Amino acid sequence: MYPRSMMITGVILVLVAIGILAFGLFMIGDEEDSMKKAARFDGKAAGTAVKGDLVLVEGKVSVKNKILVHDFVDAAKEWYDYDADWSILEAYRQPVIADLARGEILLTSENICSEAKGNNVLLTDEKSPWNRQVRYIGLKRGDPITAVGTLISSAPAALSVTYWYSGSVADHKDSLTSSRKGVYVFCLLIAVMGAGLFYWGWKKRQVAPVNS
Q1: Which end of the chain has fewer CB atoms surrounding its CB within 10 Å, N or C?
Q2: Strand, helix or coil for residue 72
Q3: H or E stretch at 176
């Protein structure tokens, strides 16, 4: 690689690291901010939360939920794609009933609950049409659940979920803290690689300016 190309690639890597860092911290910060602003709701309308409020609920996935695939009541069938990531093949969706301290609530979300304190992933021997590994990820009966969203109704209780996590509120907060650290480390590594590549290219250019 020519020195000039190395320097340009180095700059691009540093800019990519900055972009990922900014986006990652924004998403994590938004979720943390939502949890701080949300009012606790335990399943009864007697509290201060009313329809349209941002609320936080903590409970367990009810045994009343219908199992949709394997033991999951809400799940995605995913395949391991060529970008070394998991992509959804098929989604199994329904409003999820959660048991709270003083009742139950119906949770609706556009997203699969893929983040969990424990293991909410089932690896299988199935293969995708492209002969790649297949897994299932989601929620099962009895799983702990924390959710933040807009209260659609307080009696019966229903929530339009913005964020949800299979674990306690404390588990969710710990997960966000860990994610922030992970973003910092990942972006630092990319930035260091970019800076190193830029410096290497710059040094080579000083030694052989004619070839750059």
Answers
A1: N
A2: strand
A3: helix 169-207
Q: Report the sign of the C-alpha dihedral through residues 35, 86, 60, 99, in that order.
A: positive
- Residue bearing the bigger pLDDT, 209 or 167: 167
Strands 54-61 and 39-40: what pairing?
parallel
Q: Which residues pair with 147 in a beta bridge?
A: 57, 164
pLDDT at 211 over 60: no
Per-residue confidence band for 23, with pLDDT thresholds at 50, 70 and 90: confident
Q: What tokens appear for 187 in the block? A: 């972006």
Q: What's the burial of 59, exposed, middle or buried (CB within 10 Å: 0-12/13-18/19+)?
A: buried
Q: Domain containing 187: what range?
A: 3-211
**Is the bond into 144 cis (omega within 30 degrees of 0)?**
no
* Mean residue pLDDT across the chain: 88
pLDDT tens column, 109-151: 999 998 998 889 999 888 888 888 899 999 999 999 999 999 9
Separation CA 45–CA 57 (nearest Å): 13
The two beta strands, 54-61 and 144-154, are antiparallel
Gap between the Cα atoms of 37 and 57, Å rounded: 13
pTM for the model stands at 0.79
User: What is the DSSP-derived secondary structure letter of residue 90?
Assistant: E
pLDDT of residue 45: 57
Q: Structurally, how many domains does the chain consist of? A: 1
- C-alpha 13/C-alpha 191 separation (Å) is 6
